[in-house]
Amino acid sequence: MGQSRDLLTPEQRSRNMSKIRGKNTKPELLVRSLLHAKGYRYRLHGQSGATKLPGRPDLVFAGRRKVVFVNGCFWHFHDCKVGLHAPAANAEFWEAKRSRTRERDAQQRELLTADGWEVLTVWECELKDLPVLENRLTAFLGSRAG
């Protein structure tokens, strides 16, 4: 049987954390697949032509001037059950880290909107109800795919 999370050494925790991906996550792949099947085409990870967009959005719809971020609830401090979970081990570190992420997200969103981009954040917990998520995405992007 494996060790409890609270019993990991800093080296073990660091090794585990290094394996967590920031791009091409399962939630992101699911959103991409859903939109592609609906006929929407996009660029990945903030590459819009020669410009790098603030925050490197997961999906960029350059012709529509719209971007989509697919965020993990825990990592980005969402207000759902998972996002509000506070780790017991090293609590101050996690609180500070997640708060900085939330602040950085807000700054990047402001930069994008100031530059004329519309921004949508899809939360990992929203993937539990795909029909509702699909409606939200198509309302954001507009009914005409392409």
Q: What does this molecule look like?
A:
This protein has 146 residues and is of the alpha+beta class. It has a single domain, classed as VSR Endonuclease (Endonuclease, Chain A). 42% of the residues lie in helices and 14% in strands. The protein has five helices and six strands; from the N terminus they run ααβββββααβα. The strands form two sheets. Strands 1-4-5-6 form a four-stranded mixed sheet, with helices on both faces. A two-stranded antiparallel sheet has the order 2-3. Strand 4 (59-61) and strand 5 (66-71) form a beta hairpin.
Helix and strand arrangement:
Blueprint: H1 10-18, H2 26-37, E1 43-44, E2 47-48, E3 51-52, E4 59-61, E5 66-71, H3 81-84, H4 91-114, E6 118-123, H5 130-141
Parallel strand pairs: 5-6
Antiparallel strand pairs: 1-4, 2-3, 4-5
